[in-house]
Every structure is written in C-alpha cells, then in structure tokens.
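Anyone up for a design puzzle?
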C-alpha cells in the first residue's frame, strides 16, 4: 500500500489516500491542541504512542466482536485503515464525572456515575462541537435510527471491554470519545483513535491523571504520562 495525495490534515493526524480506493493511511502527529484549538503545543513522542495505543486497543476490540476501521500498522506513526465516511458525531462515554460534565452539572471530578452516561456532540469546529440528542441526529439525518442504536450499543460494549482490560493494568477509564464511520458497503465501524488524547485515564490507586488533561491544565510531566500508558498497555 502506497500513500498518494494528502486528503485531510486535522489537529493531531494527517490522512492520505492510497493506490487502493478502499483504504487510507493515517499519520499521527506530535501536535496537541485543546479548547477547540485555542491552546496549541507539542507533546514529544505523542504521535507514535497514540498510533500504537490506538492500534492495540482496536485489535482488542476486534477480538471481542466490535468492527473497526483498523487494517495494519505500517510503522511507528502510520496505520492503514478502511476508508469510511465519518458519522459527524463525537460519542462521549462517561463512567466517572470529569471535565465538561462536572462543570455542567456541578459534580466534583471523581464522583462515580450511578449509570454509564452517553452524550453526542455534532462535529463542527466553527460551532464548537455542540451537544445534541437523538432527535437532532435523526432530524438532521446525521445517522438513521438503526445506525444510532448500533452506535450506542457498540459504545456501551466498548466501554465494558476497555474498562475491564484497563483495570488489570491499574488504570481507571473515567470517560472517552469515540467516532464511527460507514464503509462503502454501508457497515458502521469504529473509526478515529482511542488514546490518551481522547480518553481520561487515572491511575486506579493514586488517581494520578495519565492523559491529555496534563497538557490542557498544565500539570507537567505530559510526555511521561503518555509513555506510562504505552508501558502499561504494551509493556514497553
Ligand atoms: N474528548 C475528545 N475530543 C473532544 C472532546 C472530548 O477526545 O473534542 C474526550 C476527552 O478527552 C474526554 C472525554 O472526551 O476523555 C470527555 O470530554 P469532556 O466533554 O469532559 O470535555 P473536556 O473537558 O475535555 O473539554
């Protein structure tokens, strides 16, 4: 598989077309942004870590029956994925209150939710990714009723698989963001990434933050936190 033209450059990744129209190559960058692009920086080594962590977790999910866009890791930074049309939603799954949910509901960070909470945001940088519900999604035809049911079902299953897996390496999965895509056959698959950029990971014992909140909130030791996630998940 060969990279041809660059199709898209986002905040943390570039996506290239390949000589096969059914596949793309994703290239992870060290660039970091937060607060809808207002805060910018570099996290040294992040691209390679997010690539490897994402692929590791995608393979785990595939083994557990979740269809994903993952095809093959090419090298440290680059991965072949199926070409999909991204459903323009961010699906947020929350086990413990943190971040914007804590602000919105006045819940201190770290409070366990009595049930897993699912939220949807419409992916649009200019609008600041507004939160939407199923009625908006159907009215705007971002997904059909069957698709949104499947996306919700996959999201809860992914939460159970990842939470259980991470618990064994002493990491608590606080919350995370998923994106789904549609293949040319019309099948819904998990897409994008699952990494310390898109999840909140806390050490189960010390509750130390091992994710992008270290960058967002200037907590220091950002690179060390990403490295620690790689070490706990892949043993290096
Ligand atoms: N998240 C993300 N991309 C976004 C917004 C959120 O990956 O554009 C992730 C974030 O890392 C966290 C979860 O989704 O794990 C919930 O984020 P929240 O709504 O609390 O927003 P934040 O406090 O990160 O602005």
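Challenge accepted. My sequence:
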């Amino acid at each position: 598989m060969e990279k041809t033209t660059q199709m898209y450059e986002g905040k943390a990744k570039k996506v290239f077309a390949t000589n096969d129209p059914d596949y793309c190559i994703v290239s992870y960058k060290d660039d970091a942004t937060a607060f809808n692009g207002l805060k910018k920086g570099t996290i040294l080594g992040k691209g390679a870590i997010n690539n490897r962590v994402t692929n590791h977790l995608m393979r785990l999910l595939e083994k557990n029956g979740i269809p994903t866009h993952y095809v093959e890791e090419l090298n440290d930074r680059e991965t072949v994925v199926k070409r999909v049309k991204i459903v323009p939603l961010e699906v947020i799954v929350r086990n413990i209150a943190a971040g914007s949910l804590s602000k919105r509901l006045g819940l201190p960070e770290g409070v366990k939710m009595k049930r897993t909470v699912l939220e949807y945001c419409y992916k649009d940088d200019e609008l600041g990714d507004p939160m939407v519900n199923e009625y908006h999604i159907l009215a705007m035809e971002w997904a059909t009723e069957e698709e949104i049911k499947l996306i919700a079902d996959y999201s809860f299953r992914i939460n159970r698989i990842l939470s259980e897996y991470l618990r064994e390496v002493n990491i608590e999965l606080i919350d995370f963001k998923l994106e789904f895509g549609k293949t040319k056959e019309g099948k819904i698959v998990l897409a994008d990434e699952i990494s310390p950029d898109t999840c909140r990971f806390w050490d189960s014992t010390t509750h130390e933050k091992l994710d992008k909140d270290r960058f967002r909130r200037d907590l220091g030791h950002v690179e060390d936190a990403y490295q620690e996630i790689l070490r706990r998940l892949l043993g290096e």
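A detail worth pointing out: Residues 90, 92, 98-101, 129, 175-177, 198-200, 212 surround uridine-5'-diphosphate (CB under 6 Å).
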